[in-house]
């Protein structure tokens, strides 16, 4: 429910819907690269005008919207920002309140070792660890779900030591991706996918063009 999200945030970040409005958080799993992105690029290669992943997600979510012709469906993408430069929604908070992934933050560590440093939080999924992404929100403004019960996300990094390790790795060594493996995962990005996301966005087009027969 939108109300679960609004309840944990300052009014400046609230979504402008009644509390009982139905919302879905959309995640992409490691297999998205082969199952969605590559076929999309194969078909739409000449129409790619911005980030290919964003465009692929947009394409698939607009197809979801078409499946509900009698419903109003609002989509907010993870990359959208307001004129104030604030994100349109806080993806990690949304994933946490929806029970999709646990948002580990500084407040989850009892004996905080960081003093005055700014420490950013990170979501960990019980099956994919850090090998996933939050891509968007689907909102159904005309559907009110008064009796929907909230599910807590799985607390899969449950010890103090592991939480400190996770936040340290994410804040200071995020490039090496070790934080993603803080728990044992069922599935992770392929080497090709890692290479793609490790490449600066402007160079990804070139990377995608290197092996046309693969895509």
TrEMBL record:
**Gene Ontology terms, cellular component aspect?**
cytoplasm
InterPro entries, from UniProt? Answer: MMACHC (IPR032037)
Where in or outside the cell it occurs: the entry states:
Cytoplasm
Cofactors required: FAD; FMN
- Chief location of this protein? cytoplasm
Q: Which reaction does it catalyse?
A: apo-[alkylcobalamin reductase] + methylcob(III)alamin + glutathione = S-methyl glutathione + cob(I)alamin-[alkylcobalamin reductase] + H(+); apo-[alkylcobalamin reductase] + adenosylcob(III)alamin + glutathione = S-adenosylglutathione + cob(I)alamin-[alkylcobalamin reductase] + H(+); apo-[alkylcobalamin reductase] + an R-cob(III)alamin + glutathione = cob(I)alamin-[alkylcobalamin reductase] + an S-substituted glutathione + H(+); 2 cob(II)alamin-[cyanocobalamin reductase] + 2 hydrogen cyanide + NADP(+) = 2 cyanocob(III)alamin + 2 apo-[cyanocobalamin reductase] + NADPH + H(+)
Q: Which domain of life is it from?
A: Eukaryota
**Which example biological process does GO assign this protein?**
cobalamin metabolic process
The record, for Pfam families, names: MMACHC
Annotated GO molecular function terms are: cobalamin binding; cyanocobalamin reductase (cyanide-eliminating) (NADP+) activity; demethylase activity; FAD binding
Q: Which UniProt keywords apply?
A: Cobalamin, Cobalt, Cytoplasm, FAD, Flavoprotein, FMN, NADP, Oxidoreductase
Q: What is its EC number?
A: 1.16.1.6, 2.5.1.151
The UniProt similarity line reads: Belongs to the MMACHC family.
Its protein name is: Cyanocobalamin reductase / alkylcobalamin dealkylase
**What is the organism field in this record?**
Trogon melanurus (Black-tailed trogon)
User: What would be the name of the gene that encodes this protein?
Assistant: Mmachc
